[in-house]
Design brief:
Distance between the termini: 44 Å
Strand content: 5-15%
Radius of gyration: 19 Å
Number of helices: 12
Order of helices and strands: HHHEHEHEHEHHEHEHEHEH
Shape: globular
Number of strands: 8
Length: about 325
């Protein structure tokens, strides 16, 4: 199959070649990886730096609602919150995007028109990814036609875990082609990949196939984003750019609920990939409740006290 990266054409020429390449990547030392992630998580961020980090984190959120009970009204309310997170303080940054199911993409696009906040839509039979390729591609086409600026696709974890890497690679290529100008985030569901070696292989597979972002998880399983799996993916995008000159974004999703957690992830970004990734074009948080805590902490920094329970809306 053709690849957008000629330097890796041989690696993606066949299933066996792709397997050799992915299994030839350096193995991950789980103890060392988790120790480094834990050590970086102890960094202390104070005063002005903390205020900057909170605003940066707000600007990196894909404010998300992915529930069967989603309604147009709920999506419009979420869009309003993304554009104006704190009505009492107009200096509060907007979030990066609102993430919804494809059938809600048109509602989100209308509500966000002219705001600069992106419409992200999950697709490809999210969250399980258990559907035929033509169904997955139709899902993507519908979302893009409805106004999605970004597509969050899920890989076929069954195929990946069975070693059918070329099938996963070709599906990502096909989805990327359907995206047009929309950016593609490839979700690995790291909690189902079993090993750090598999997360590293999935990261490289997604990047070789043309992902604009690699994303940890759907938020629908027990283990979602962790400092260790995000650190591993940050190492992958750093090394990929060093070899190809192509920069890829990273999106941890699921389980990041507090300002303290978000700041730890920003430290990981800065210390691993570098300052070039400290921008919402290259790093995102997939979250629903994180924004509320960031707003509470932001208000505490500016006034010296915490607000009451009605200060932020309940999504």
């Amino acid at each position: 199959m053709p690849t957008t990266l000629p330097a890796f054409a041989d690696a993606t020429a066949s299933d066996s070649a792709l397997r050799r390449f992915l299994h030839g990547l350096a193995g991950v030392d789980p103890v060392g990886l988790e120790a480094r992630a834990a050590a970086l998580g102890t960094r202390s961020i104070k005063t002005t730096a903390k205020a900057y980090a909170i605003d940066l984190a707000i600007s990196m959120i894909d404010l998300t609602t992915l529930e069967g009970a989603d309604t147009p009204g709920k999506v419009r309310a979420l869009a309003a919150k993304a554009v104006n997170p704190d009505p009492t303080d107009r200096t509060t940054p907007r979030t990066a995007a609102v993430c919804v199911y494809p059938d809600m993409a048109a509602t989100a696009a209308a509500a966000l028109a002219g705001s600069g906040v992106k419409v992200a839509s999950v697709a490809t039979a999210f969250p399980a990814g258990r559907a035929a390729l033509d169904v997955k591609l139709a899902d993507v086409r519908d979302a893009v036609a409805a106004g999605a600026d970004e597509i969050d696709m899920v890989i076929d974890r069954g195929a990946f875990l069975a070693g059918r890497y070329l099938k996963v690679y070709e599906e990502i290529l096909a989805v990327k082609a359907e995206c047009g100008s929309a950016r593609l985030k490839v979700i690995f569901e790291t909690g189902e990949l079993s090993t750090y070696d598999n997360i590293r292989r999935a990261s490289w597979l997604g990047m070789l196939a043309g992902a604009d972002f690699i994303k940890t998880s759907t938020g629908k399983v027990a283990v979602n984003a962790t400092p260790a799996n995000t650190l591993l993916m940050l190492e992958a995008v750093r090394d990929f750019r060093a070899q190809t000159g192509v920069q890829i974004g990273v999106k941890p999703a699921g389980g990041i609920r507090t300002s303290k957690d978000a700041i730890k992830f920003l430290v990981l970004v800065n210390e691993t990939a570098g300052e070039d990734w400290l921008d919402n074009h290259w790093f995102r948080f997939g979250a629903s409740s994180l924004l509320n805590d960031l707003l509470m902490q932001r208000q505490k920094l500016s006034t010296g006290r915490y607000s009451g329970p009605d200060y932020v809306t309940v999504d």
